[in-house]
Write a structure and sequence with these properties.
Helix content: 25-40%
InterPro entries: Gfo/Idh/MocA-like_OxRdtase_N (IPR000683), Gfo/Idh/MocA_oxidrdct_glycsds (IPR050463), GFO_IDH_MocA-like_dom (IPR055170), NAD(P)-bd_dom_sf (IPR036291)
Organism: Flavihumibacter solisilvae
Protein name: Oxidoreductase
CATH topology of the largest domain: Dihydrodipicolinate Reductase, domain 2
Keywords: Oxidoreductase, Signal
Number of helices: 12
CATH architecture of the largest domain: 2-Layer Sandwich
GO molecular function, one term: nucleotide binding
Order of helices and strands: HHHEHEHEHEHEHEHEHEEEEEEEEEHHE
CATH superfamily of the largest domain: Dihydrodipicolinate Reductase, domain 2
Structural class: alpha/beta
Number of strands: 17
């Protein structure tokens, strides 16, 4: 979609003031970093580090991916890696990333460790010349994430980060309606995601954990994916439940936010808002199965649109417009999309040369928003953002 059409469909006047040429130029320039390398034309050899709960969902998907071959598994608790190897792959098992990197050769590191370890391990893998797919977040700070990307560019390798929400047919449908002006002038949007909190590990509640990088990251990725980069953030965060009982450490003090509300102003003129937390009773629970209520809502001057189900597992889109005021449900076919597909999709892209929608600059922008939300809570001020990413994502 052209810049002119994009601005027209959002109903934004004074385009130069709203989406400055410098922002678009920066995003376009950064987008060149994601031009695919020459395709491998073979299966991508994968090493996965972090054999906890998430690996139990990733590995079955990778096992069914024709473009991936899992050759090594690593965990500081070797019995967990041994268990996964027996369950899914028969890969060689390692107790430490250094031994993994010195062992069976592989192309792509998949990082499903505790989020506090993501930046450190990503940097080690990239320094060793490995491509990286990382579960969210990409790093603990925007500065660290930017340094990791700069290192990847210097090493001639690539890094991508979860979540994969922009891959869903429902996201594509919503982006298309917005691009075609079906909702008129887009004004506002809302996203929410929460449950009662994970019980299996303390890292969710420790420093650099929290509901924003664990839960809010999905809605932030969805809303910035639909409306483009945000230029400023205002937020409030706090801790509602000061102590938790978790399986790995027993009773702990909660340090990271377990309750957050974040308001962003997009360069496109849209004002959007997300809320997330570990204190939300939801009958659908952490897995979200059976969730039939909207969790992403978009409002425009000529219509409204609502994503049904969580944005990481949507089931359809409800839409009503001036032309068709009776709400109808669209995009009920989820296709092959599942939240855990990101690493498999990247394997396909590395193997074939196909270009992914998932973009590391988008992941970094989401990370900057999370950091800015915490800074807004600390200072009581609106925080301006510096990052951007190639957008629109769906033409």
């Amino acid at each position: 979609m052209s810049r002119k059409n994009f601005l027209t469909n959002f109903g934004v006047l004074g385009a130069a003031a709203v989406l400055s040429p410098s922002v678009l130029a920066t995003a376009a320039e950064k987008g060149t970093a994601d031009v695919p390398q020459l395709p491998l034309n073979r299966k991508v050899r994968v090493g996965l580090i972090g054999c906890g709960s998430v690996s139990g969902v990733y590995l079955p998907h990778l096992a069914n991916c024709q473009f991936a071959e899992v050759v090594s598994l690593c965990d500081i608790k070797p019995d967990r890696a041994q268990k996964r190897a027996k369950q899914f792959s028969g890969a060689t098992v390692y107790p430490h990333i250094d031994k993994m990197l010195a062992g069976v050769p592989f192309d792509l590191l998949i990082n499903t460790t505790n989020m506090q370890e993501h930046g450190r391990l990503n940097k080690i893998a990239i320094a060793a010349g490995k491509h990286v797919w990382c579960e969210k977040p990409l790093a603990n700070t925007y500065k660290e994430g930017r340094e990791i990307l700069d290192l990847a560019k210097a090493k001639g390798v690539k890094i991508w980060g979860a979540p994969a929400v922009v891959n869903s047919p429902q996201f594509a449908f919503m982006a298309k309606q917005i691009a075609e002006g079906k909702l008129g002038r887009i004004a506002a949007a809302h996203g929410h995601y929460g449950h009662e909190g994970p019980h299996w590990s303390a890292f969710f509640y420790e420093e650099n954990g929290g509901s924003l990088p664990d839960l809010g990251v999905y809605n932030i990725a969805t809303l910035t994916g639909l409306f483009g980069p945000a230029k400023s953030v205002v937020a409030m965060t706090n801790v509602i439940t000061p102590t938790r009982n978790v399986e790995d450490k027993g009773s702990i003090q909660v340090v990271a936010e377990d309750n957050a509300q974040v308001l962003f102003e997009h360069h496109s003129g849209v004002i959007s808002h997300i809320q997330c937390g570990f204190n939300y009773f939801d009958p659908y629970g952490h897995q979200g199965k059976g969730q039939e209520r909207p969790t992403i809502s978009v409002y425009g001057s000529k219509g409204n649109m609502h994503m049904v189900g969580y944005d990481w597992m949507p089931f359809g889109v409800d839409m009503a417009t001036h032309e068709n005021p009776a709400t109808q449900r669209f995009a009920t076919d989820t296709g092959s999309y599942v939240w855990q597909e990101g690493a498999s999709v990247i394997c396909e892209c590395m193997s074939t040369g196909k270009q992914p929608l998932i973009n590391v600059e988008h992941s970094l922008h989401v990370l900057e928003i999370i950091e800015a939300a915490r800074e807004s809570q600390r200072t009581g001020q609106r925080i301006n953002l510096n990052s951007a990413f190639p957008w629109p994502m769906v033409g």
